[in-house]
Amino acid sequence: MLGGLDPRIRCAVAAGFMSTWEDFLLNKAHTHTWMLYVPLLPRELDFPEILGLRAPAPTMVLNTTEDELYTLEHVRRAEKILREVFAKAGGADRLAFNLYGGPHKFDVPMQEDAFVWFDRWLKA
Questions:
Q1: Backbone angles phi, psi at 70, to 5 degrees
Q2: For residue 48, what pLDDT is reported?
Q3: Does the CA dihedral 56-59-65-70 come out positive or negative?
Q4: Residue 123 scores a pLDDT above 90
């Protein structure tokens, strides 16, 4: 959420945290936390649209294919939304959406990809 709302963040990586409000509310709320839920916000913006507010600023999303906190169908739906938002903002090349095998995690390969992304966009 911070990456979508604070323009001082020049480059962002969201790790293991991208789906849709529908997925969260209907499928996974019982396995997750309600601290990410902002009352009434889902009426205005879907979860990926919040991150999309930063478009076309460089943004990477790292998710897994077997995350017990999100369904893959809705992770893919979030990816579609973000790709459309970034394309409309002229920043299709500034969005990376990477999927990794396995359960919810932020392992070394994912971290390495994040550091490469930061280096690409933040180093002079």
A1: -145, 150
A2: 94
A3: negative
A4: yes
